[in-house]
Amino acid sequence: MTEGSQVLTEAEICVQVLGSRSGYVKGLGHGPRPPPSSSRSKHAKSHREIELENELKAIRELIQSQETRILHQQSQIDQLASFVSEMRQHMHIQRSSSRSSSPSHDTPLMDS
């Protein structure tokens, strides 16, 4: 330091380098300015969150409904498969009994 030079504070250096503008937050120095708080932006955010929560709830209900529907359809498929199996066994028994009762008819029945 030279004689006659003055020691500047951090705030004074900032004012000399950056200049004095109305964009600075009073009492907080020359740091970044916080975004303006607005009750409207907070309200909009909470409104969007509510919309998303409602949408999520609706999607979960749809998934539950679809899972129930799938279980019901699987039950129907199982019942139909059992019915088809029983019908094939019944047809096989009928073919076997008709072949043994009339040996002159050797024509096989076609499976469908």
Helix/strand class: mainly alpha
Total of DSSP H or I helical runs spanning 4+ residues: 2
Regions with little confidence, pLDDT below 50 for 5+ residues: none
Major beta sheet, specifics?
A: none
Order of helices and strands: HH
Provide the helix percentage.
Answer: 55-70%
Rough shape?
Answer: rod-shaped
pLDDT averaged residue by residue = 79
Give the termini separation: 107 Å
Percent of residues in β-strands: under 5%
Question: What is the radius of gyration computed over CA atoms, rounded to a whole number of angstroms?
Answer: 43 Å
Would you report the number of β strands?
0
Please give a structural write-up.
- The protein is mostly helical.
- It is 64% helix and 0% strand.
- The chain is built from two helices and no strands.
- The longest helix is centred in the middle third of the chain and has 63 residues, at 39-101.
- It is rod-shaped and about 135 Å long.
- The model has no long low-confidence stretch (mean pLDDT 79).
Record the SSE blueprint.
Blueprint: H1 10-18, H2 39-101
List descriptors.
112 residues; single chain; 0% strand; 2 helices; mainly alpha
Describe the structure in brief.
This protein has helices at about 10-20, 40-100.
